[in-house]
Design a protein that fits this description.
The protein is mostly helical. The protein has two helices and no strands. The longest helix has 95 residues, at 24-118.
Length: 130
């Protein structure tokens, strides 16, 4: 009985298997050791279940964090793409504006040249002597 108690205290739940509860003090001690063994097994099972739940919760938390990081990275990528698109649009507008200004300047020069060629003595537009 002493050896069974020491083994049970050390965590060996098989130590009580050979003991049979019966009448008398030794039988009562064997019954008590069986109750202790069952309680130890229940406690161990509950601890494993708690650890499994904690591990599952931690895994779910890690997955949620990874999903949030992936979503944030995707958002940053979309923002960068949008900024690049806007910059490209600004550059295109600037190029078109510069081209339109160059076209207007060329047309103005052509009109001034036409006015100057059209008048024999003085240009009607700029009044230069021809």
């Amino acid at each position: 009985m002493t050896q069974a108690t020491a083994r049970l205290a050390a965590g060996d739940t098989g130590a009580v298997d050979g003991l049979r509860p019966g009448a008398g003090e030794i039988g009562a001690l064997a019954g008590a050791l069986t109750v202790f063994r069952d309680a130890l097994n229940d406690r161990t099972r509950r601890m494993r279940e708690d650890m499994d739940r904690a591990e599952a919760a931690a895994a779910a938390e890690r997955a949620a964090q990874q999903a949030a990081l992936a979503a944030a990275e995707a958002e940053r990528d979309r923002d960068r793409q949008e900024q690049a698109r806007q910059e490209a649009e600004r550059q295109e507008r600037r190029r078109l504006r510069d081209a339109a200004e160059a076209e207007r300047a060329a047309q103005l020069q052509e009109q001034q040249a036409w006015w100057c060629r059209g008048w024999p003595r003085r240009c009607g537009r700029c009044r230069r002597a021809i």
